């Protein structure tokens, strides 16, 4: 079951997803007080199931897989050992506790560990996209074709565990229930402390689309871009007493040349469309879309800064909100900002462009396709 031909990632979404979309009826639901049409949960799960399996049965040489296998083998294998084991862990203890609990309950199979973790991560993505996206199939396609799926379920799984826990706070964030939102973010921070960035963000993205807070955020990012050397010095000082104290020196010593400009362009499209079609966003006044528009502006700003600083470190931060802008906002924009005929054409063009990006990233950047 190990995935060796990565074209299957797209083959399944087109063939399997196409059959499910065409022949399985949808159902009516209430989301944010509005009656909407959504995929049934069993159908949504069928679409994502192969991706859970492939993430679990990845190649041992892929990304950080070897390091996580080593950590899993060395972690506690019984409940009685967990206390002593955690005392030896210096950061992100929540993730290693999760690892130890899984090993104590289900045994020492690394494959099963990866499968269960991928299931936890992807089921939250399924829940979010099914509930809030205008087009569930298109949202999952964007998640796969953007290579976020490969980047985060095959690699960076500790941070992505924190990411999905933060996304689970979406209903609370939309209803401005900040205490449960922050509690979930604090829980996620035991997996990866970088998720604490979400605490100020959930306040910044509140309100109408393109409000003063969003504009100020963009101006701050532009200022950081213009004074990038001073920005990195400030960042180095701010992180001095944290587990990320070596971030600036590390990415400079590794000759990290920043996030690929093509990726920055791809992730900036939802923000650009939200500006062009602002009147449609304002007329609809949907809380999820307003939030996603604010998120898209921050995503764009962070990626632009990471383009001239570090793709390895700063380029990993947008994932905490980029799925809102890419998988929720973009499908909405295509459906609501164009006529039905034009929307169909724009969607086809978007699918083709994302397939090209998928090939570029997988073949030229990573050399695995």
Structure description:
By secondary structure, this protein is mainly α. Helix content is 70%, strand content 3%. The chain is built from 20 helices and two strands. It has helices spanning 8-23, 41-56, 65-74, 82-87, 93-106, 110-132, 136-145, 148-153, 157-167, 170-174, 178-189, 198-204, 212-226, 228-238, 247-253, 261-276, 278-284, 287-308, 319-336, 340-365; strands at 27-31, 34-38. It has a two-stranded antiparallel sheet. A hairpin with a 2-residue loop joins strand 1 and strand 2 (34-38).
The shape, in one word, is: globular
Helix and strand pattern: HEEHHHHHHHHHHHHHHHHHHH
Radius of gyration: 20 Å
Name the beta content range. Answer: under 5%
Major sheet: arrangement of strands: 1-2
Q: Please outline the major beta sheet.
A: 2 strands, antiparallel
Which characteristics define this entry?
globular; two-stranded antiparallel ribbon; 369 residues; mainly alpha; 2 domains
């Amino acid at each position: 079951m190990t995935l060796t031909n990565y074209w299957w990632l797209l083959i399944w979404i087109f063939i399997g997803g196409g059959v499910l979309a065409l022949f399985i009826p949808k159902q009516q639901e209430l989301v944010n007080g509005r009656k909407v049409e959504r995929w049934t949960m069993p159908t949504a799960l069928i679409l994502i199931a192969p991706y859970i399996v492939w993430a679990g049965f990845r190649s041992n040489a892929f990304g950080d897989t070897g390091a996580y296998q080593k950590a899993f083998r060395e972690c506690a294998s019984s409940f009685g050992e967990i206390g002593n084991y955690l005392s030896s862990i210096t950061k992100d203890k929540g993730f290693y506790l999760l690892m130890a609990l899984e090993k104590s309950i289900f045994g020492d199979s690394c494959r099963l560990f990866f499968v269960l973790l991928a299931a936890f991560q992807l089921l939250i993505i399924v829940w979010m996209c099914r509930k809030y996206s205008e087009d569930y199939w298109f949202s999952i396609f964007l998640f796969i074709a953007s290579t976020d799926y490969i980047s985060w379920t095959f690699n960076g799984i500790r941070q992505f565990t924190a990411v999905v826990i933060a996304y689970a706070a979406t209903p609370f964030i939309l209803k401005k229930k900040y205490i449960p939102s922050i509690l979930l973010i604090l829980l996620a921070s035991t997996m990866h402390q970088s998720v604490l960035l979400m605490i100020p963000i959930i306040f910044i993205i509140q309100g109408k689309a393109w409000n003063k807070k969003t504009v100020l955020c963009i101006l701050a990012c532009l200022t950081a871009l213009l004074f990038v050397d001073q920005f990195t010095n400030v960042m180095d000082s701010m992180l001095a007493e944290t587990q990320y104290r070596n971030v600036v020196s590390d990415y400079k010593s590794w000759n990290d040349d920043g996030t690929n400009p093509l990726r920055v362009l791809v992730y900036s499209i939802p923000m650009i469309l939200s500006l062009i079609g602002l009147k449609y966003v304002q007329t609809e006044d949907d809380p999820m879309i307003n939030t996603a528009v604010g998120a898209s502006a921050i995503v764009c700003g962070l990626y632009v800064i990471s383009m001239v600083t570090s793709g390895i470190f700063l380029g990993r931060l947008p994932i905490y909100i980029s799925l809102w802008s890419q998988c929720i906002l973009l499908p909405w924009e295509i459906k609501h900002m164009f006529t039905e005929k034009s929307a169909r054409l724009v969607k086809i063009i978007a699918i083709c462009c994302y397939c090209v990006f998928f090939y570029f990233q997988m073949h030229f950047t990573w050399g695995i396709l």
